[in-house]
Amino acid sequence: MPLDTSKNNQKIPVNPGEVLFIGGKAATSMNILHEGSVRVETTLGDTSIVLYSLEGANLTPGIFALLEGTPYPYTIRAKTSCVVSTYVMNQPNAKKTLTTKVSVGVMAVRTLLKEIGELYKRVLSIKGLASKFDQTMDNLGAVYYILNPSIFSDVTPGAKITRDENIIDPVMKLIRNNLAGFQEHGGILPEKPTVHFLEEDHGEFFEKDYSEAIEWNDTEFHFIRKILSVNPKISQALFEADPSLLQSAAESYVKTYRELFELLSKETYELSETMNSMFVGENGLLEKFNLTLDLFNTGYSTIPSTVLLPITEWALKKSKSLLDEYKQIFGTNYASTGNCLEKLESKQSELTSKFGHELNAQKNKEEAIAQGNDPIRAGIDTKALKVELLNSASQILNYSQADPESVKEFSTLMVKLKSFKNPLDPEPDNRKIRRTIAKTYWDVYKKSFTKWLQSGKQAPKAVELMLRYGYFDESLLDDGHIVELVGRLYQPGGNPSAPIHHGTDWLEKIYSREVPTSVDELGQTFFEKLKMDLKDSGIKSEKDIPPDYDTGEARLGSEITSMYEPNVRLTSGNIASHFPILTKYHITIPLEKCFVSKDDVEKALQYILGIDYTAFNREVIYRNEDIGIKNEFIQRSIIPDFILVPSIGPKIMMWQDLSIFRGAGSKESRGRICIPHFVTGDLKTFMLEAIAAFRWELCKNILGPDWNNVGIPSITADYTDYVQFYKKSKDLSPELKEKISSEFKRFRTDRDKFAYDYSLWIRYEAEGVQRVNRVVRSIFYRHIPFHKNIREKVSTQPAYAELHNRFKNIRTRQHKEFENKYKKYMDASGNLPKELYENLTFYEV
Question: Which residues does the UniProt record annotate as the domain Cyclic nucleotide-binding (predicted)?
Answer without folding.
Answer: 16-82
